[in-house]
Design a protein that fits this description.
Elements lengths: L3 H10 L8 H7 L2 E2 L11 E9 L5 E2 L1 E4 L4 E11 L4 E7 L1 H5 L2 E4 L3 E2 L3 E11 L5 E4 L3 E9 L10 E2 L2 H15 L7 H46 L6 H45 L10 E4 L3
Parallel strand pairs: 9-12
Antiparallel strand pairs: 1-5, 2-3, 2-5, 2-11, 4-10, 5-9, 6-8, 6-11, 7-9
Helix pairs in contact: 5-6
Length: 292
């Protein structure tokens, strides 16, 4: 017979390390709101409960575009006993379709709550995601050796939804690496530089024509002060050329004014875009507080 001290030691030592089978996961009652069809030989398939769009709206269905990112929260709750540790892993079937899960890993002993993750579409085609679809695989292993005191962390569904929604709206873009936003920004900067370059050339040309007009006017005035035969016939071509230059100068000034008006419109539109509320992208932490 074992003594009381020996029984206490056995409780804190735990069973030698090993991965739980699907039947053992079921018997330990680790998964709440479980589906019988999701128990595997040595794991459990977690299903989508709800999704958080880039704008923060919580939905049951979402079409994930190429390079898009979305927050996913599991339907199941996972309650990890003190003598076990869980691991959230990607589903191979999703990876084969170009869907990668981020923020996954260890589910600590003492965690009690839903599991969340970011899903990114690296494929060429949009992918429909809906409530009930499998998105992660969870495995559980026994801890071997003396067990430390476990700090339990339990969060309700509402608490997890609010935390993940806040993280999505505040810190994640609408696409992986925010490529769409960066390309749009570069495009606007290139457009601005192009118009500034055109404005510079037009200004230089206007200045050159103004200087030429001045000298031509001065030159014609000098000719008019000198008594010369056929002065009228000689000055007429010069006068015509001066009038032509002045007309071209006036046209260039008109075009310059149009370009300046367009630049003001672009600056005003960019100011409105910057002041508009941004759409965050979708994100998720692997398993809330418990998934490191």
């Amino acid at each position: 017979m074992t003594t009381e001290a020996e029984n206490s030691l056995q409780v804190h030592i735990g069973t030698p390390g090993g991965m739980l089978t699907g039947q053992a996961i079921r018997e330990r009652g680790i998964i709440e709101r479980a589906s019988d069809s999701c128990y595997r030989y040595a794991s459990y398939d977690l299903r989508i409960g709800e999704l958080i769009q880039p704008d923060g709206n919580v939905v049951l269905d979402y079409v994930l575009p190429p390079r898009g990112i979305v927050e996913v929260i599991s339907r199941e709750r996972v309650a990890v006993p003190d003598d076990l540790v869980g691991t959230a892993m990607v589903k191979t079937s999703l990876c084969n379709d170009g869907i990668l899960a981020l923020g996954i890993g260890v589910i600590d002993p003492g965690w009690d709550g839903q599991i969340s993750s970011y899903l990114i579409n690296f494929g060429k085609n949009p992918r429909h995601l809906g409530a009930g679809d499998v998105f992660l695989r969870a495995t559980f292993q026994r801890l071997d050796g003396p067990l430390p005191i476990v700090q339990r962390v339990s969060k309700t569904d509402v608490e997890i939804r609010d935390l993940r929604r806040k993280a999505t709206v505040g810190g994640i873009g609408t696409s992986f690496l925010n490529l769409a936003e960066e390309l749009d920004k570069l495009s606007r900067e290139h457009e601005n530089k192009r118009w500034l370059t055109a404005l510079t050339y037009v200004s230089i040309m206007a200045l050159i024509l103004t200087i030429l007009a001045f000298f031509m006017t001065w030159f014609s005035s000098g000719l008019a002060g000198k008594p010369q035969n056929r002065s009228v016939e000689q000055s007429q071509p010069v006068t015509s050329e001066i009038d032509l230059m002045r007309a071209e100068n006036a046209e260039l000034r008109s075009r310059l004014a149009e370009i300046e008006d367009r630049l003001r419109s672009i600056d005003s539109a960019q100011g409105q875009v910057r002041n508009a509320p941004k759409q965050p992208g979708v994100s998720s932490s692997g398993s809330g507080e418990g998934n490191k």
